[in-house]
Fold this sequence. Notes:
The complex is a heterodimer.
Chain A: H1 6-26, H2 30-54, H3 61-91
Chain B: H1 2-33, E1 40-41, H2 47-70, H3 74-94, H4 98-123, H5 135-158, E2 168-169, H6 174-182, H7 186-206
Antiparallel strand pairs in B: 1-2
Helix pairs in contact in B: 1-2, 2-3, 3-4
Amino acid sequence: MFEIGLTHYLVVATLLFVMGIFVMITKRNAIGILIGVEMVLNGANINLVAFNRYNGMGNIDGQIVSLFVIVLAAAEAALAVAICMNFYKNLNTVDVDHGDTLAG
Amino acid sequence: MTLRLKKILLLMTPLAIAMFIAAAPVHAADTDLSLSDQGIQTSADGGLLEALMFYACAGVILASGLAICLSKNIVRMAVYLFGTLAAVALMYFLLLANFIGVIQLIVYAGGTLILLIFGVMLTSKSPWAKFEVKRSELIAAGVVCALFAGMLLFVVVNAEWPLETDAVVVGSSMTQFGTGLLTNYLVPFEAISVLLLVVMIGAAYMARQE
């Protein structure tokens, strides 16, 4: 119980990942979906850092990769917010269900 | 339901901060006594404190994550997301990834979250706008996610990691980061620099006024 190991971190990361997927599925606000994506990325990042901590090899490859993930998440958020603003300008809402103009 | 979660969150956050402050000197003392001349130290003996810190962080992460799931208000979701991101940063400190923890606080909590809140403010007539989801959709999504979580947890809990060790290799130093980024990870590093430039131009182009 009081010995914290790799599995503890993996369980937290898994739950965060699944909650992010739930948010992505159930929210209709485009920004809400973006929040879900951020949660998924954080869950994956916990995995990377935890495996890096407990592999005992003395490298920090996992941490470097998680650094890349953080940078990509920031870039993705900036672009997604720009897309949301365009969406709002064209359709006057950020409800993703209204973005079906291209549907046949 | 959400109100109760909010109370839990409010109670947990100062607790986590207090635990983190309390844990800091113990870790420092452990490092002094460690076999740092070999670059290897045994696991911190303050296992109880580490466990308490871990459970506090995990509690904040899961409580605020659940609050995001149940909240219908986009501004509240962004605020709960701050709880999740800050607790994840604390968890990185627990995992001895100091640099990643700092970067998480600066880039995620300081940058991405502000961007999200600006996005909320720029795209809704009223920041309290609500988007209703059908109850059947909520139930279906909940069932699918519960099954998926069950599957993943089953795999994670039962998996054996042959390399898992509790030995702490003193590391995560800036030297290692700098060397890694300029040797083994040079190509991804350069690619991500170009990507950031492209994203900056692209976002400015897409968000411009006609």
